[in-house]
Amino acid sequence: MCRIAVLDDDRNWCMALQRFLKNTFEVSIFNDATSLIEDLIQDVRQYDLIMVDLSLPPDAYGEIDGRKFIRYIREVLLEPPILVLVTAFIGKNELNSGEIFCKEADAFLAKDAGLDEISRQLQQLLVNR
């Protein structure tokens, strides 16, 4: 079973996502970037994919937000693929040209795309990696 790390500060959304994906993926939830970085230090290859909320606020130290985390991961790791979730207020054209937001990400998806679409995108990224 593929392992996915989800980095998002919305605990309720994370629990819903984890419940939805539990039969297909092993999902680990992180609500701040520092916790996930500490986990990755233990074993950098433990996740097959990382899903990140682009609008993640800075961590408790005020240093690492969603964008900085993605850049950090890309500098340190070539893998795993990164799926970035963005707010529903982003237009489809802006979403399709995701490099505007963060060129280090492998794919972008609006948070309100629905759980089925998120699952489909995860599977597609894992097949193409």
Automatic annotation (TrEMBL):
Respond yes or no to whether keyword Phosphoprotein is given for this record.
Answer: yes
Keyword annotations from UniProtKB, A to Z: Phosphoprotein
Which residues get modified to 4-aspartylphosphate? 53
Secretion signal, residue range per the UniProt entry: none
Q: Which PROSITE patterns match?
A: RESPONSE_REGULATORY (PS50110)
Give the matching Gene3D superfamilies: 3.40.50.2300
For this protein, the record's SMART domains field holds:
REC
**InterPro entries, alphabetized:** Bact_response_regulator, CheY-like_superfamily, Sig_transdc_resp-reg_receiver
Q: Response regulatory domain location, by residue?
A: 3-126
Give GO BP annotations, semicolon-separated: phosphorelay signal transduction system
Indicate yes or no for the key word Phosphoprotein. yes
One Pfam family this sequence matches: Response_reg
Please name the PANTHER family in this protein's record.
RESPONSE REGULATORY DOMAIN-CONTAINING PROTEIN, STRESS RESPONSE REGULATOR PROTEIN 1
Descriptive protein name:
Response regulator receiver
